[in-house]
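#structure-requests
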Amino acid sequence: MQVTFNNSLNPSMEKTTFTLHKNGDSIPLPEIISIIPVKEDIVFPRLVRVIELYGKGLITAINEAHAKNECIGIVVLKYHVASPRHEDFYDIGTASKVVRIFESTSDTIKCLVEGLMRIKVTEYTQTEPYCTAKIEELREFSEKSETIDVLIQSVKTLFKLSAMLGKALPKDIIPMIDTINNPSIMADLVTVYLDLHIDEKQKLLEMVDPQKRLRIVFHYLNKDIQVRELKGKINDEVAKEMLKAQREFFLKEQMKAIQKELGKDEPHMAEFIKLEENIKKAEMPKEVELVATKELERLRDINPASPEYTVSRTYLDYLINIPWNKKTVDNLDINQASKILDEDHYDLKKVKERILEFLAVHKLKEKLKGPILCFCGPTGTGKTSLGKSIARALGRKFIRISLGGIRDEAEIRGHRRTYVGALPGRIMQEICRAGACNPIFMLDEIDKIGEDFRGDPASALLEVLDPEQNFSFVDHYLDVAFDLSDVLFITTANILDTVHVALRDRMEVIYLSGYSEDEKLKIAHQFLIPKQIKENGLEKYPVDFQDAAITKIVLEYTREAGLRNLEREIASICRKIAKEIVGEAQVTKIILPETVEKFLGPRKFFYQVTEEEDKIGVVTGLAWTETGGDIIFIEVSRMRGEKQLTLTGLLGDIMQESAIASLSYIRSNAKRLGIDETFYDTSEIHIHVPSGAIPKDGPSAGITMCIALISLLTCRPAKREVALTGEITLTGNVLPIGGVKEKILAAIRAGVKTIVLPLKNKDDFEEIDKEIREKIQCVYIEKIDEAIDVVLSQKP
C-alpha cells in the first residue's frame, strides 16, 4: 500500500478541533475494520478531530466507512516515512466514526472523526488498496474513590492555572472541564492540549488504567506550569532591564545636551563618546565588555587632572587594543610550509616533521590548542631563527621575548593596578603589539630565569604554558580572562636541568644536536656565505669560498657545536675583502686554505688527541656541556703515601663519587685484573681533570676514571685516539648516558678514531646520520673489563 499523509489543520479550525462527544449514536464494533494511519496527532476516545489524508486507498476507506456508517481504526506511525507499511504502525489505536466529510477529491480528503474506544490490532488481513485488520477492544477499568476525585479536582485547578499563565486554549474548554467528573475523559481531554511529543501521547493512549493516566497528566501539567512561571519571571526581568537601559540612555542624552548648552567639558565628552565607540568595535567577550563599560562610567566621574584618571584611561586603552578576536589566517599548505622550512634551515628533520604534523592536524580540526614546543640544544644551532621560520611557514605574526635574567613575576603576569606605573605583563603587551590572538610566541632562554624575593617567574609561566589552563589566562593588570590556547608557544633552552620540573612537564622537548663538519660545510654554502656577502655589500663582487677553505675554518678556527663562530669568521673574511675593494687593492675573489690563514691569522685550535702520544694513566673521555660535546682528559698519578685519594679539577659531587666507585671496584677485583692487592696500603692516588677553573660534574666519566686507574696500576699506556663515556657500578656494569650525538661530534672534531659506548646506547648511535657514523668506530660494552683491551695497549 503506497500512501502519503498531510495532517496539517486549517488555522481557523484549530481552536474548535476537539469537542467532547456526549450523545453519539452507538456503533457496533466489528471483528475486522479498516486501519487509517496518521502521523501528526492522536484521536482519543470520546473526542472529535479533523484529519486530512492523501492517497487513493485511504480516500476509498474513509468514503466506504462513512457511507456504511462503519468504524475505522486510527493508529499512529512509529516513523516518518514516505511510503509506510503496516509494520510501521503502532498496535494500539482508537476505533473511530467518520462524522462528516468536508472536502474530497481524487488525491485528498478532509473529514471529522469521533473517537469511540481504545483498540488493539491483532492481525492485518489486507494491505491493498488500504489496510484492514482484526482488532480487540481494550476495556478501561476504574473504581470510584476519593483519590480519583482529588486527582480530578487537582487536574482541573492546574489546567485553569495554566490558562491564566498564558496557555492558548479554546474559549469554551474551561466551562467544559468543570462539567467532567470521569477520570478517563478528563485525562484524555487534558492530554490533547499538553505540549507533548507524539510518542508520549501514544504512551498515554496505551495506558488503560484511568487513575494511572490521570496521575501522569497531573505531572505534565505541573511541569508545564513551572516552565511558564519561569518564562514569566525571565520576561519580567528582561522588561525591567530594557526600561533601565532606556532610562539610562535618555539621561545620558540629556546630560550631553546640558553639557553642550553650558559649553563645558566638550573635549572630554567627545573623548568618552570615542571610547564608547571603540569598546563596541573591539569585539570583546561580553564579560570583558561589561568591565570596560563600567570602567568608562567610572572614568566620567574622575577629575581629568587626577593621576587616577590616567591610570583608568590607560587601562581602557589596553582593553580596547587587545586583539580579542583578531586572528591571522594560517597557511595550511603542507608542501609550501615544508619548502619554506627547507629554505631557511638545513637538516633538523624532527623539528620540521613536528611542525608539519601540527599543520596536518590543524587542517583536519579547526579548533586546535597550540602545542608548547621547547627547542633544547647548544648555542648557535638555530633555535631562535627556527621560530621565525615556523611563523613564516604558518603565516602568523612572530613575537620573541628573552627570559634571561627575569626575576620579577610581574614581568609575566603584570602589576596590580594600584599605582601609576603599573603595566600588563610581557605576554599581554606583546600580543597587543602583534595585533593578533594567534601569534607564534617565542620565550627565549627559559633555562636562565632568575628567582628572588619579588617572586618566581618560572612558576608564573605554569599557567601560560599549560594547555588546560591558558584558555582563561588572567593578567594581574587587566584582571580579565584572555584565551591563549590559539597561541603557538615555543621556548628555547641550552639545558633543561635548571628548568622548573613542573614547567618542563608542560613542554614537548625537541633536542637540537650540534652539527658535523659536513653539515657545517653545506650550511655555510647555502646560508652563511650568501648572508654575509649581502650584509657586507659584496653582491657585485662575487666571492667563491672553496670547500677546503671552509673546512679549514671549521677545524682550525672554530671548536663549537653551533655555527656562530663559523659565521663570525666568514664575516671577518668578507669585511677584509670589502676593505680591499675600497682601498683599490688587488681583490681576492677565491678563498683558498692559504687565503684563510692570510686573513684570519694563525690557527686557534689544535687536535688534542692525534697530536699527542699514548701515555700511562691518561685516558680520553667524552663530556656534554650546554654548548655541545667536548673531550676531557683524566690524568691519574701514584705517589708514596697511605690510603689517600686526592681529586682536583673542580669536580662536582657526582664525579667525586664516580672516582671513589672506580677505586673501590679496582681494589675489590685487583687480583683478577693483575694488580697488587696491597697497592692502596702504601700509595696515594691523585686523579686530576685539566681546566681546573671550569666546574665539571656528571656520571659519564666513571668508566674513563676506572680505565685510567687500571692503566696506571698495570703500567699499560692508554690509546689517546680511543675515547670513553659511561656510568659504572661497583659490580662492574656500565650504564647508559645521554648526549650521545654531541659527544660523538666532539670526538670527531678532536680526531678520535674509536669511541666506547654502553651497549644500551646502541640505538642512540644508530639514530645519528650515516655520514657521521662512518667517520668513527664504535665499540659497545656492558662490563668494565670489556673496555680494558680496547683502550689500553700492551706493556712496552
